[in-house]
Amino acid sequence: ADIPDQKMRSMAALAILLATCMAALAARAPLPARSPPATASPFASKQPQSCIAMLLAGQTFAGQCADAWGALKHYVKPTQPQVGYAWVQYKVEKDFKSPSDAQGTVDDDISPAVIGPGRLLYIVDDHHTLCALDYTQFDDVIVTMNVICDLSPYTPLNFWPLLTARNLAYLHASPAGKPDAFPVPISPNDLPANFTCAAGKTDFTDSPWRALVGFSRQVEQAPSPAPDCSGDYKYCERCMIRGCDGGWSDSGPSVPFFEFRWAYYFVDATYYNATWWPSSDAYKAFQSAYEALGSHPLGQATTSAWIDTAALTVPLCRASSTGLYSLPSFFTGNGTLPGYVGGYVKLDKDPACDSPSCT
């Protein structure tokens, strides 16, 4: 009766010995390579988390997040009251012709934002890019935000003075019905309530001078005696260089609301003190072309006319006197025009700057 038991015990011992040997061999031999599942992305771990989920979770956050624009825009607030309608239209025509074009554009231009009261995203740059995207109604485009700081614990009473002091909000606008006047201070309550840029319906008012500065950075041929850009960067004779960290560096944070500084100067030189222009002929040629542009609703500008008019600003931008101009104190910094370059020096491409800093 003991023989079957002995046989079973022997077989069990042999199985244990065999398993031990197999484990030892496996420890010495490398495991075979395993391919990831066909549905897994090799970049899956690098994809930003959902902005909306992060905001609703109430977590303190800094870094990148992303969502489809159609859902995300309800959580996005502007930090400036105006955009240049003609410049928005130019971006639509140039960079947002299709959903794939739009996706490539916003992927190359990640928008900096601050988490503020109500756990909403207050963007501190790229208003025109996101306005152009909203105009197209390509709501499935994924927009990535770079949250530079979380100020959600602050009340609106404390939030806006802090944002303004750090040059992350532009609380000025041209007076109603007076687009060619100097900008005046506004209340945060006067900012657009929603980020809407649909044709015939937008809470942003128009700043033609902000649009004009945008076009002045795309000049391909400035008036004589500017040299031709053939063989060089095609915008080599544009108005200024949009550099980093004050306006001239090749690296560092971007200059917030860069174009509004130059827009202020354009208004001053055109309607308040024409002596900033290098000649009366240059001044008269520009003023005539500018006034011929007229006003228009969002989406109804003739952008080619704006490009031609912007080329006439180059003599002013490059004038030696422009380097002496002092901006009003509500523009933080050293008071000079950022990116000013005197004379007809050929300019290379603008550098890629970091997001503005919260400190």
What features would you describe in this structure?
The chain has twelve helices and twelve strands. By secondary structure, the protein is α/β, with parallel strands linked by helices. The protein has a six-stranded mixed sheet. Strands 4-12 form a two-stranded parallel ribbon. Strand 10 and strand 11 form a beta hairpin. The longest helix has 27 residues, at 2-28.
* Strand composition percent: 5-15%
Query: Order of strands side by side in the largest beta sheet?
Result: 1-2-7-5-6-3
Shape: globular
Helical percent range? Answer: 25-40%
What is the oligomeric state here? Answer: single chain
State the separation between the terminal residues, measured CA to CA.
87 Å
Structural class: alpha/beta
* DSSP strand tally: 12
> What is the residue-mean pLDDT, rounded to a whole number?
88
Largest sheet composition: 6 strands, mixed
C-alpha Rg (nearest Å): 29 Å
Short description:
The chain has 359 residues and is of the alpha/beta class. The chain is 36% helix and 11% strand.
Explain the layout of strands and helices.
Layout: H1 2-28, E1 49-50, H2 51-57, E2 63-68, H3 69-72, E3 76-77, E4 82-83, H4 85-95, H5 99-107, E5 111-116, E6 120-123, H6 127-136, E7 142-150, H7 156-165, E8 172-173, E9 184-185, E10 197-198, E11 201-202, E12 205-206, H8 208-216, H9 258-271, H10 280-293, H11 303-311, H12 314-317
Parallel strand pairs: 1-2, 3-6, 4-12, 5-7
Antiparallel strand pairs: 2-7, 5-6, 8-9, 10-11
Helix pairs in contact: 4-6, 4-8, 8-9, 8-11, 10-11
